[in-house]
Design goal:
The complex is a heterodimer of chains A (434) and B (276). Chain A is an alpha/beta fold and 434 residues long. Chain A has 18 helices and ten strands. In chain A, α17 packs antiparallel against α18. The radius of gyration of chain A is 24 Å and the shape is globular. The N and C termini of chain A lie far apart (83 Å). Chain B has 276 residues and is mainly alpha-helical. Helix content of chain B is 74%, strand content 0%. Chain B contains 14 helices and no strands. In chain B, α3 crosses α13, α4 packs parallel to α7 and α8 runs antiparallel to α9. Chain B is globular and about 70 Å long. Classes of the chains: A alpha/beta (434), B mainly alpha (276). At the A-B interface, β1, α2, β2, α4 and α11 of A face α6 of B.
Chain lengths: 434, 276
Amino acid sequence: MSIKNALLTSVVGFGLTAGIAAAQSTITIATVNNGDMIRMQGYTDTFTEQTGINVEWVTLEENVLRQRVTTDITTKGGQFDIMTIGMYETPIWGANGWLVPLDDLSEEYNVADILPAMAGGLSHEGTLYAAPFYGESSMIMYRTDLMEAAGLEMPTAPTWEFIAEAAAAMTDRENEINGICLRGKAGWGEGGAFITTMSNSFGARWFDMDWNPQFDTEAWANTLNFYKSMMDASGPAGYATNGFNENLSLFNQGKCGMWIDATVAASFVTGDDSTVADHVGFALAPDTGLGKRSNWLWAWALAVPAGTQQEAEAKQFIEWATSTDYIDLVAANEGWANVPPGARKSLYENPEYLKVPFAQMTLDSILSADPSNPTVDPVPYVGIQFAAIPEFAGMATEVSQEFSAAYAGQQTVEEALAKAQDIANEVMEGAGYK
Amino acid sequence: MARAITTNRKAVNTALAWAIGLLIFFPILWTMLTSFKTEAQAINDPPLFLFFDWTTENYSTVMERSNYGRFLWNSIFIAGGSTILGIIIAIPAAWSMAFVPSRRTKDILLWMLSTKMLPAVGVLYPIYLLFINLGLLDNVFGLTFIIMLINLPIIVWMLYTYFREIPGEILEAARMDGATLKSEILYVLTPMAIPGIASTLLLNFILAWNEAFWTLNLTAAKAAPLTAFIASYSSPEGLFYAKLSAASTMAIAPILILGWFSQKQLVRGLTFGAVK
């Protein structure tokens, strides 16, 4: 080989290598550890094969993830190209200019196919800032065999009065069966989320239109007293410290007659790890006849932080992961029961998916939730199980700690509500709302 | 008779020591056992102790899902690097405080210790901003440096208490024989304080290995150590206890093995010096 040829070969070789390196850019995604997200990680190779973009995953527990991505986005750390965030953060961060607007997604992606409730909750002033990977509401999961044995029939849309009555009838302490299992654990996303949705159905609200805290109202006292007396009579021991996982564990072992929680739990209680999979029915979350049901609305969504160096690649991934093609990919490999639910209208128009036992009830629950109008009386905030203001997470965690202490019998309901009122007053005054 | 009482007391003491030891070790043992169960067995009520269908499926899943080798290497680098760096800085500092104290030495020692009383989250934002400007986010060198700083007060305090046990006259004699400062520290002081230095090394390696606040907050994909590896298997929405236990067992196994082999040195060092 002549020197000239050798040089030419080297230059071409170098060029090709550089070209491949440039094509194979890497994006870093921060996400939570749950079934759907982990499944998505398993299909990353398919995305890389299609686009040449490599993906690095940073998977963290939900609360750790929140702290981690909040630190990074507020300091413009630039550690992540995509962040998994929820309905609480998205409108606040979008308003602050911390997220890249997703207003230029391709036509094939079909933004109009996203369920309106999800798109609305992930937007600020009509601009979408995060694409829903999966969405959820909450609903009743109940044991059909125990309900039948109690001589009762679950209505499609029951009242709280019926739920308390059914819980008492299904409770069988000798056989370790608790009529009802509900979240009581402190934390704004745990017991705090549940009791807020329950309070909505009892006519309570966090703030009036002038941002005055409302824990000193009769509606809040009714909510907490009803919850506590029902759980004391028919709930599991130590319910004040039970969250999603504890209740899931109890339900799967056949120790709960009813469980009101996230719609995504439906696939767990009817899955292989459940001992009662063949005896599970679903119903809408209860109400008290005041016009609001006690179900929430949530989505885990993918957003691009402002300032990322790889905005185009990040958007490419989001389009892939939240597309109908991805849903088809999962369905083809793992069945329709395992596709990410609650994000796209077309999924609920698919007759194959509607054969999944909990599909229709999940959709009905999502459609019955209205984050812009969450309470019986008007409120100045958006959000059902939260108020979409930056101060809410810290304040609600403190309030839920007081509530949990009341559930555990460490203080009375009245004392807990008085402390909640003081906490909320202090926070809202300090933040300049009043 | 007296001998019988002594034997009985010995037996009681031994039984008590074993009972306390097992009690302390039980959470680790339970984690290990859970790692060999299925997710359904992991939440079984009543809990299953030994009689269940043992499976290594969780380990396969964890190995398939995560790059364990990279997390392990990062942990070794960060824990080892920060400990060695800390010792190099702390030996001269502890020497000067132990053998050439000034009027302010005690105040400085207390001030150093007081920095450990500040909750780490209080300085998260300043440190994070510094790391952004220095390009040290998600970087093992940056993390090694910060972990060294976090543990430095403990290293200095431990070495200071060991050095104070050593008679100053020996160092004085070395100086009279013409030893330079370097020779005095390297060839006279250090060999005499080896048990203390070894236990300081081991204890700080363990502290650095287990450090979770900074390692979670200053890393992303590249520099994340085993603490981040464990955090990636924790979930408030989904029962993944068996997989979490497998990840935890894999994360603590290296440090458990190190602790097992070095327990003699660790105990000797901890009981020899003033940290009793």
